[in-house]
Amino acid sequence: MATSEASVTRIMVAVNESTIKGYPHASISSKGAFEWTLQKIVMSNTSGFKLLFLHVQVPDEDGFDHMDSIYASPEDFKSLKSRDRARGLHLLEFFVTRCHEIGVACEAWIKKGDPKEVICHEVRRIQPDLLVLGSRGLGPFQRVFVGTVSEFCVKHAECPVVTIKRRSDETPQDPVDD
Amino acid sequence: MATSEASVTRIMVAVNESTIKGYPHASISSKGAFEWTLQKIVMSNTSGFKLLFLHVQVPDEDGFDHMDSIYASPEDFKSLKSRDRARGLHLLEFFVTRCHEIGVACEAWIKKGDPKEVICHEVRRIQPDLLVLGSRGLGPFQRVFVGTVSEFCVKHAECPVVTIKRRSDETPQDPVDD
């Protein structure tokens, strides 16, 4: 059954890099949120949905870590920026390629800033039908220190939000890792 | 495309009666959550989903309100109970009929107790893939007095939860009404 653009459900999935493996690997919880969306919501109705992948990069407070000198030239700044961009694109490639294989329409883009603020801002701008977020499922004690993006977005995002907790068998030794 | 039982997504929708119109009318937010599920998730993939309607009735603390005497006989209690049951069934009828018309499989049942506790208990028992809750979208000030079932379930239900806020054009004069 053909589905007109108007009746396509637009699902925003916020994705980030693995804290353990780093770029270009997606975090366990991002992949979980994505797989849940495909398996439980999209299923065989591939023409009924469009997935919108948002990756928010946190500006590097200690951006010179990987460089030889703290006296950076304008070129150094430029290469730092393009390195970040390339990393973000590689991360998104995983999700876009998977969608392409399955035949689900998608878009993907990168923003910089505080993830929770940027996600809510992008929700206002894009107005998806649903926002899907992966979550590490931290306990209250761990949450105090690391904050949780999902908790903030559930409260503040101006669209329905669903949080997919990491499966317990996928939780790394330190649950703050992802 | 035929869908095997294993790949059917089971969505629990908690529904309650309208505080304005009373039984058998469903609350604005329940109907909103139901319609959202059909329009944004199920769409044409009617064989891919099963909807599970749970209606939780709050035990009437002031159960003699509608009776002539506070000295109730055992028969009075019995008729009270069957009246509640009939009301609950009428409420559920709206949702079940709608599913039947569209061709979506469903189940519906009634429980008594504190809605937030019962919903989380039923989630543990039934293990749906998703819990959909309507919400009045009350501000923090209003929430202090009426509590919110959705906020509790987002935190405690052992499955993904999505809260559908009432549309602003459907909000009654007093937002606590529903």
Oligomer: homodimer
What is the radius of gyration of chain A? 17 Å
CATH superfamily of chain A: HUPs
Helix and strand content put the structural class of chain A at alpha/beta
Average pLDDT taken over every residue of chain A: 87
pLDDT < 50 stretches of chain A = none
Q: Biggest interface, and residues per chain?
A: A-B, 20 and 20 residues
Q: How many β-strand runs of chain A?
A: 5
Q: Into which percent range does the helicity of residues of chain A fall?
A: 25-40%
Short description:
By secondary structure, chain A is an alpha/beta fold.
Labels describing this entry:
homodimer, 178 residues, alpha/beta, Rossmann fold, 5 helices, 20% strand, globular
Describe the structure in your own words.
The structure is a homodimer of 178-residue chains. By secondary structure, chain A is of the alpha/beta class. Chain A has a single domain, classed as Rossmann fold (3-Layer(aba) Sandwich), CATH 3.40.50. Chain A is built from five helices and five strands; from the N terminus they run E-H-E-H-E-H-E-H-H-E. Chain A has helices spanning 28-42, 74-102, 115-126, 140-146, 149-156, and strands at residues 9-15, 49-57, 105-112, 130-135, 161-165. Chain A has a five-stranded parallel sheet with strand order 3-2-1-4-5, sandwiched between helices. In chain A, helix 1 (28-42) links the parallel strand 1 (9-15) and strand 2 (49-57). In chain A, helix 3 (115-126) runs parallel beside helix 5 (149-156). The radius of gyration of chain A is 17 Å and the shape is globular. The termini of chain A are far apart. At the A-B interface, helix 1 and strand 5 of A face helix 1 and strand 5 of B.
